[in-house]
Amino acid sequence: MQAYGIDVPIRNLPALDPAFVPMGRFNRAFLEGAEKPVGIAVERMDGQMASVRTFLRGTDAMREADRYYIERLVKTLLWMKGGFRVYVCGDDETFRFLRESYSDGGARSFDYHFMSGVFEHPFEVVQTDELPAPKDAPERIGGHLEGCRIGFDAGGSDRKVSAVIDGESVYSEEVVWFPKTSADPDYHYDGIVAALKSAAEHLPRVDAVGVSSAGVYIGNRTMVASLFNAVPKDLFEQKVKDIYIRAIRDTFGDVPFAVVNDGDVSALAGMLSLGEANVLGVAMGTSEAAGYVDENGCITGWLNELAFVPVDAAPDAMRDEWSGDVGCGVKYFSQDAVIKLAPRAGIALDESLSPAEKLKAVQARMESDDPAAAKVYDSIGTYLGHTLAYYYELYGMRHVLLLGRVMSGKGGDRVLAEAKRVLADEYPELAGKLLPALPDERFRRVGQSAAAASLPAGK
């Protein structure tokens, strides 16, 4: 198979998407003939830096491939680790191209504005003679089981809270709410406080509070979160950025607390259930969400927004409506993937249904062992096998926990089985190094809100 003039050898292709070009395979093929050195670094807060030295083809004939490769690399670093400044070392043309792409009105304008908002700093691409050294600040967080704790998990359709004493859940509740459609931040605040008070009624005291919430959180502050999409920008600044801080302090005073992305908390729950670190959690639901706990049991502070990390190098890959980009994980590892592939398998979906209802319709057919539905899940499994090998290059994780609605039932079993088959056939060097799995009963016993309760250290 060929993409951008690069011959990419692939043995396993999705039956319903034979044009798929795995990003990891493309990168390997591109680099085989690349000899022109170039360096890229991405800066986050407090001088933290992701830094990569790589190579380009460096010829006029390969200019399009060079540009595609380097832009996808920058995109991957930004959404995996986050950052507001990109450093380019070693090539003037690459610097000019990236500065134009990642600008207001450029091809990656969405990324430019998103990262500016997350880090509260103007996004910029700068040229440097010396590439900055990589620097991370992993933080050991979670696993604190002592005392009387509350764990709160904020989801898009329900909120969960647990009261935990010395690591054992003594109370939990799940309440339906509608945060994504409410423009009044007091609705969210009142719901959070109500959950905290409900859990506190089952504890003799409150020693610490942990929060698991979809979105990007820096210093316990809400930088970007889909839960608050309907809140006007001015009210977001006034009442949402510190919403969890206010809710906890207003309710319990000066108790230890921590607010962490729900993907990282899923990975933490996986670590607690497995008894081992180096865990990547990937949740396939409305979107693709992810979190990572490193080999030392630390949360890295990276964004881990794999929904926007490119996984398909096909030039005509499916476009994401929100970011405007193509070939990114959200269209391969979410309900969007099922909806995209179902018609190709001959499954007609009622267009009056919501995306979640369309997913349920395909799931129902899969539970009845419909061969057409099986093709959908097998194709997602092929995507996944290739992409897990690529994620391994990025993270070096040992365990992968596959979560979310797409992975439930017989469909999830088929996805996992096909992913394992592709890994064994096409990436045998990863045998015994990369262990993908569905959650087991130990994980379910830990639970997201109970894992959140273990986030902050006690006084």
Layout of secondary structure:
Blueprint lengths: L1 E2 L2 E2 L15 H10 L3 E8 L5 E8 L6 H19 L3 E5 L2 H10 L7 H11 L4 E4 L11 E2 L7 E7 L3 E8 L2 E9 L8 H16 L7 E6 L2 E3 L2 E4 L8 H8 L2 H10 L4 E5 H13 L4 E6 L3 E6 L4 E2 L35 H7 L13 H13 L3 H25 L3 E5 L5 H18 L8 E3 L3 H6 L1 H6 L6
Parallel strand pairs: 5-6, 8-11, 11-14, 15-18, 18-19
Antiparallel strand pairs: 1-2, 3-4, 3-5, 7-17, 8-9, 9-10, 12-13, 15-16
Helix pairs in contact: 5-7, 9-10, 10-11, 11-12
Radius of gyration: 22 Å
Spatial order of the strands in the main sheet?
10-9-8-11-14
The secondary-structure class comes to: alpha/beta
* Overall strand count: 19
Approximate helicity band? 25-40%
Mean pLDDT level: 94
- Spans with pLDDT under 50 lasting ≥5 residues? none
Distance between the termini: 58 Å
The shape is globular
Number of helices: 14
> How much of the residues is beta strand, in percent?
15-25%
Largest sheet: 5 strands, mixed
